[in-house]
Amino acid sequence: METSPEPTRNVQLLQRGLRSKAFWPLKSGGKEILPFRKISVVVVEAHSDALTHIYRAIGSKKVPFMGLKLLHFDSHPDLCIPPVLSSVVKSDPIELLEKVEIQSWIMPSVFAGHIDHVVWLHPEWSKQLTNRRSATYSIGTPRDTQLLSVNIPEDYFVDEGSFWPAEEMDSPIPFGLTVATIHEANTLCKVCVDIISVLLNHAFILDVDLDTFSTCDPFRNFYSEQQFALIDKLFTPPQMPVLSGVDATTDPEVVFAAATLAAKVTTVARKAQLNQLKDWMLILSSGVSLPSSEIAENPFEVFTLCSLLRSLGDKEFTPVTWAAIESTFLAASMRVPEASQPVPVVRLEDAFPRDQVLQESIRVSALPVEVPMEETGDPEDGDQTCSATSSSPRLPTPKRRSVSPGGPFHMKTRLTSKQCDDEAMSFAEGKEENVTAKKDPSAEKHAGDTTGDSVPDNASVGSASEKDDQALMLYLHDLWSSLADHDRSPLPHHVSSFEEQKELRECMESLLNRLHNPCLITVARSVTDGYTPQEQISDIQLRFFQSLDRIYGHHILSVLLDYDG
């Protein structure tokens, strides 16, 4: 005799007669029944698109306007600060949604008061923030600027220049932050108790990035070793001084005050470093060589910057800008005692054919051309390369420290999610043909749109306008500041095995089964930007939804797939 499947958690609650915020009483045939409210599940491609659906749910009063908790499963914190004025965050959500990116979509909703506590649960291979029990911090605007800052004295915020003491902010807004590994949250330790106490009896949003289960670093092979060395020389952030005389007996308030002072000093130095490099790059983009006084004061830095720009090749810039780079390089090399050999040029056309379609596609891409992963070595190897990429300066949006110019993917220039799914199926069946090229030949000719507002839609790679060169310089400045010092603070990269993914899902299920139902579930695939291995995405997504079915039951899940394909 065939046994019936084990009832879901919600069915068990009904059988026990328990009441929850997840359901409401109805009358039927003289008896009270307790049907559960539907839980909206939204699946997006780029993680920043989740904020759109959160705001829609708030606007339609399906979730509370204030006091929400965010349970955030991800391999990346996504807690960077977008370059958006504080007035825009609170008064113009449409403009805000256009400017947030995959690494900076959470904090604006915290500043707006919608979310007052973020619980980030991450796999063991992700270490961009220090694990901590629930703690209170502040977000606000420093008195000399209208851009947002936070008072968390960690490299993640200091390196992007977004740290500032709460005492020097105008009307700082407190919020809670909890950071723990997924495995740690599944135990009976104090961390797990903290997480449950934060979420219990409060409305919370369950947010899951599928790169939680298997993670790629799409930047690993985009530049040569020589180019990465130049980027590190120029853009490596100053290190915060190590606190001396601190041990387990030191008062935590004293430690935090000392760390705040160190972080403030380091942030000021970091901003000065980035502003100087940006000024130089904008001067060169206007077709003017750097002043001799700048070269005399900073010969090594100017020489390194020009060497890095020259490594991109003359096709990337207008003749006027290229001449300014060359003349500045020559002047700086005369002041450098032993000028190193020029870095080999990596030309864009080596990776992307230059045709009319490419000329129409610029907004300086952020998406590599992805091809099926070659079956070399053990597929369970954590160091496995996720996809073949070019050495072009047009890269995915970085999910780490600094604010990159990435925005929503341009429909004309990105790989669709369906193409990635088809390619994953082809890989699983052992096929060797490049399905992406077969499905959309133009995908190899250009990359996705992630540039920001400063780049016009009709700008072209080889455009002979000063405005385009300035936009490219700003893009490269933001990108390189994110990629610097990748040996000390790299992006997480771990292509996990089936067993590892299963263990993570079981830990997630164990925690969620102890909580009441979320008011909204948002899911990000993160495959077209290179963070979730595209050969694994179909299986990861399928098994994740099977987990949701076991936890909540498919009868109360209302799923919306908001991505191409």
Q: Could you say what the CATH architecture of the domain at 36-136 and 174-218 and 495-562 is?
A: 3-Layer(aba) Sandwich
- Shape descriptor reads globular
Average pLDDT score: 78
**What is the CATH topology assignment of the domain at 36-136 and 174-218 and 495-562?**
Arginase, Chain A
CATH superfamily of the domain at 36-136 and 174-218 and 495-562: Ureohydrolase domain
**Structural class determined from secondary elements:** alpha/beta
Strand order of the largest sheet: 7-6-8-5-4-9-10-3-11
For the biggest sheet, the summary is:
9 strands, mixed
Helix-residue proportion = 25-40%
Tell me the series of helices and strands, N- to C-terminal.
Answer: HEEEHEHHHEEEHEHHEHHHHHHHHHHEHE
Total count of strands? 11
Number of helices: 19
Q: In the CATH hierarchy, what is the class of the domain at 36-136 and 174-218 and 495-562?
A: Alpha Beta
Span between termini: 42 Å
Biased composition (Basic and acidic residues): 429-448
Biased composition (Acidic residues): 372-383
Family: Belongs to the UPF0489 family.
Biased composition (Polar residues): 384-394
